[in-house]
Amino acid sequence: MVRKEIEKLLNIALEKLNIDEKASVSFSSFPELCDYQSNSVFALAKKTGQNPFDLAGKIIDNIEETEFFTFEVARPAFINIKLTQKGYNHFAKLLSLDERCGVSKLKSQKVLLDYGGANVAKALHVGHLRSPIIGEALKRLYKFLGEEVISDVHLGDWGLQMGLTELQLYEDGKLDFYFSGKGKEPELTLEMLNEAYPKASARKNTDEEFKKMADEWTLKIQNKEKPYFEIYQKIREVSVKEIKKHYSELGAEFDLWLGESDADEYINKALDIIESKGLSRISEGAVVVDVAVEGENIPIPKKSEEEVQRYKNPMPPAILKKYNGGALYATTDIATILMRNTQIDRLNRIEYIVDARQKNHFVQVFRVCKMAEISPSDQQLIHIGYGTMNGSDGKPFKTRSGDTIKLEDIINMLIDKAGEKLKSNGVEYDRKLALQIGVAAMKFGDLSNNVGKDYVFDLDKFLSFEGKTGPYLQYTVCRINSILNKVSQDGGEINIASEEEKKIIKNILKLNSSYEIAYKEKSLNSLCLATFDLASAFSTFYNNHKILTEKDMHKKASFISLLKLVKKALTQALNVLAIEVPEKM
Hints:
This protein is an alpha/beta fold. About 50% of the residues lie in helices and about 10% in strands. The chain is built from 20 helices and 15 strands. Helix 2 (about 40-50) crosses helix 3 (about 50-60), helix 6 crosses helix 8 (about 190-205) and helix 17 packs antiparallel against helix 20. The two termini are about 35 Å apart.
């Protein structure tokens, strides 16, 4: 809002000087000197052959008169801009009147967001945590900025884990009814699946015959043979019910609950398209597509920051069909893109929120889709790769015995820790409240880091009611609500008088800018930081001003309106981050 107004004034001045260029404005790197600054003069002077300092002076001399800003030149050729008293009041009023608190919408696109990605028949674990957290926040961000977003959980329900699980259940005598027709139909439970899959997964690494048989069972499921497919459907039903429960507790919601299996009918269509364009070939009985490009170097993941970066070359072929005719992850992902572009009209982007370690997989899939024109040339296919969630030792977060932690255990840990925190603060235990606070702690702890970076899971730090945490932001809004509930007057016109009030307005403006930064970077860390900075600015204001006991009624009315503005800005940001605000804490 303010930057655009300043840029408009500067660009009108440039027009008066017959300079056919545009100036840009940013928040000041030195807030003690000014509020905004423009560094454009250096480039403008070079293009026009003028002395930078002299040109900056000419620009200021040609700026139209304004009550809202002051402009001055700082050597060597910076233009420093300050908001005047009237400027602060003017923009505070605009922010308070605007239902979006001054955040503009972007040009709308239609986006399909693929996140969640849980595997059917497997217990959700800590590795499934980041995708729904990041995906839900990006979905809300895109929608808030005016885009049409379709979210799809894209379940992993068509791969080898299905054959492994069924075969293990069969060998354990749990599926006799389906093959003999004798006895009573068994109830397939989550406990059975949680026992069968890990057992089968370990066996496949040492028992080649078992692995081969599991491949055959997987193919029978994919060919929808009886009773293999019927058993698969029951396993899927049990798993999805549990997956929905855990994603709901994390506040992740999806428009589509489709999986790899839903794209099955598009697999042969995709393979036919690829073959018709002469892209596929047979290699050791498998169908592959060469996707390497000339001169390509593929980074080999480093074990430490100090290690020298090494590369391998070239990108290996994408394998689309196994020796036995079975489909692979690449096959179903390509078929899914074909399905989406067939069923959904005009998708501008398809984005995947998946572990960064899957980068090469998506490079292969995207290249095949572009080569075969399964994805239109103007459609963006984007992989947003996230880093790992690590323990204090810097290694992927696990139990003390080295086992992967189940997502259910993480959620219970969040609830228990938050409950302890509430109890220590003298608040009566409430599971819903503990879940809200625990999930907020987890989400903010995750989202405040750059999406592509690994980070350390430190629940005690995340759950602090002070500092840069989710509970601190929740508590700030609760505190504002508590104040507003104690006043009888509605508020009045905002009059920004103190430095603390000015800082609040500046931080709201910075928060508004952070939405676009988060959108461009596809990472929520800038929005998290700006939200915390606003909450911190409010805390300073609250500590230095007596709001409830203020005797000057005009001043008190201004304070009340300012509190409502801060609450609106914070609540709006927390909603985008998918963090709920409790009624009390």
